[in-house]
Amino acid sequence: MPLSEYEQRVLEQLEQDLGQDASLHRAMNRGPRTPVRVIGAAVGVLVGLGIVLVGVMTQVALLGIAGFVVMAGVALWALLGPKKSSAPAATAPAGPAGAKGKAAPPKASKDFMQRMEERFDRRREQGEL
């Protein structure tokens, strides 16, 4: 079932808004985490777990708490740290929506939407819908 004109306008507005979101753009352009960070995190979590176990066996609560803090800190360091960039990250445009100096993501999104519309039109013409 095709979208109404109102739904198409809302969808286009959402696409433009997502294209203007700088934090989303940065998050989507990051590559995988570096192996050093992953290995360091695994070792750090194991060390923290060891400290927790020593704290439990010796019944020293502060040692157990310290071990937990080490585990949580290393895990957060690995998860929230920067990822290895697979390509140079483009900056999001600073101007208002509709400005002439748009960044690549809205254009790529528009190309994607144009391809989807063309596919939809072809299917409708061939009677598949």
Write a concise keyword list for the protein shown above.
129 residues, mainly alpha, 2 domains, 71% helix
Order of helices and strands: HHHHH
Name the poorly predicted regions: 86-104
Class based on secondary structure composition and strand pairing: mainly alpha
Strand content: under 5%
**Global outline:** rod-shaped
What is the total number of structural domains? 2
Number of helical regions: 5
User: What is the helical fraction, as a range of percent?
Assistant: over 70%
Radius of gyration: 24 Å
Brief overview:
The chain is mainly alpha-helical. The protein contains five helices and no strands.
What does this 3D model show about the protein?
The protein has 129 residues and is mainly alpha-helical. The chain has helices at 5-20, 22-29, 35-58, 61-80, 104-126. Helix 1 (5-20) packs antiparallel against helix 5 (104-126) and helix 3 (35-58) packs antiparallel against helix 4 (61-80). The longest helix has 24 residues, at 35-58.
Break the fold down into its secondary structure elements and pairings:
Blueprint: H1 5-20, H2 22-29, H3 35-58, H4 61-80, H5 104-126
